[in-house]
Design goal:
Elements: E1 8-17, E2 26-35, H1 63-76, E3 80-87, H2 96-104, E4 109-111, H3 115-123, E5 127-137, H4 148-172
Parallel strand pairs: 1-5, 2-3, 3-4
Antiparallel strand pairs: 1-4, 2-5
Bound molecules: hypoxanthine (HPA).
Length: about 170
């Protein structure tokens, strides 16, 4: 994508809400992430033409774009949450103890994607925007168990506002 000239990447995902004030179908602007995937996508020989060996990750999700998404949400009347996304590999959902750990570590949402893509895009000098669809309260945050079907249903409920938001954001890039 970088080589094709893409300057800004919008990464979206489904995530579990770790922050107890989040509800299914909320949208969360990602302000930062925690990589607990046990892997770093930049391990291996560095391609110096793409990015530096030790890239700065102090602002993966640029504040300028976070502000743009929030402003766009305001204009459209779409409520947005914001917070830190913590990535685990999955494919199982987390245990309640893992979700408590995630909260203790400062996460607001937990999921199984996005972080490797965001890190590589940042390394390559692209602007990174991340938006999570909170599809369920993460394990133990609410008393109900998790099912993939509930996750899909919540995503479907959020679909239209998510699409509207992303389309409007793209117009402003
Ligand atoms: N955990 C991890 N990934 C997810 C979840 C979750 O609770 N919901 C949707 N994707």
């Amino acid at each position: 994508m970088k080589k094709l000239g893409v300057k800004t990447i919008i990464i979206t995902n489904a995530a579990g809400g770790v922050n107890p004030s989040f509800n299914p179908s909320d949208l969360m602007v990602i302000t930062d992430h925690i990589n607990l995937m046990g892997q770093n996508p930049l391990i291996g020989e560095n391609d110096d033409a793409m990015g530096v060996r030790f890239p700065d990750m102090s602002e993966v999700y640029s504040s300028e774009y976070i502000d743009l998404i929030k402003k766009t949400g305001d204009e459209l009347g779409i409520d947005l949450q914001e917070g830190v996304y913590l990535a685990l590999t999955g494919p199982s959902y987390e245990t309640p103890a893992e979700v408590r750990m995630a909260r203790t570590l400062g996460a607001d949402a937990v999921g199984m994607s996005t972080v490797p893509e965001a890190m590589v895009a940042k390394w390559a000098g692209m602007n990174v925007i991340g938006i999570s669809c909170i599809c369920n309260s993460a394990a133990g945050v609410s008393t109900v168990g998790l099912s993939h079907e509930d996750v899909i249903n919540a995503a479907n409920k959020a679909k239209n506002k998510f699409k509207t938001l992303v389309v409007e954001v793209i117009k402003k890039l």
